[in-house]
Amino acid sequence: MPAPVFKGNVFKHPDYVQLEACYPELQSYTSAFKTYWLEGYHPLVGKDYILDTPDVYVQNAIGHAHVEPLVKNPISYTSTDACWKAWQAPDSVSPTVPTSNSFLMYCVDEHRNACLLGYLDGGDRDSHEVIKTRSFRTTMELRAGSFYNRVPRSSPMQPSEHGRLFGEEWLV
Hints:
Elements (H helix, E strand, L loop, with lengths): L9 E3 L1 H9 L3 H14 L5 E6 L4 H5 L2 E6 L13 H8 L14 E6 L5 E7 L6 H4 L3 H17 L22
Parallel strand pairs: 1-5
Antiparallel strand pairs: 2-3, 3-4, 4-5
């Protein structure tokens, strides 16, 4: 059975493009996210959602998609190698969506176009703590704002739509 195809494009913020230039390995995550965004699944992309706090993330439809890190930090089963392997098995019906301390930051507009804003690798700092800092939130807000201003007739997806990023209404 062919994979579903969802509406929307994936763009890269200029600062994200600079990150890719500095870290060529990031391109594999970019490619994985594009496939995930269009088909609803990619083995390198795990749990994904629009952040529900603080308001700056909600109002700007800023989310994060966990990606499989090279080095796992098994805080819980969802961040283990076993969970990622089960998720990636071709015949798997694994209900457990994997997580990690590495993720792509993005925003999404009302037409379901996504813009990659940044990447946190979960290295020496807990990425989940980094996204709570005022300076990081401000940076993401500014990058999202520049995307919405750059794309004609674009504004953040409404909060009531955040839970349906891969709903039937977005199928091609």
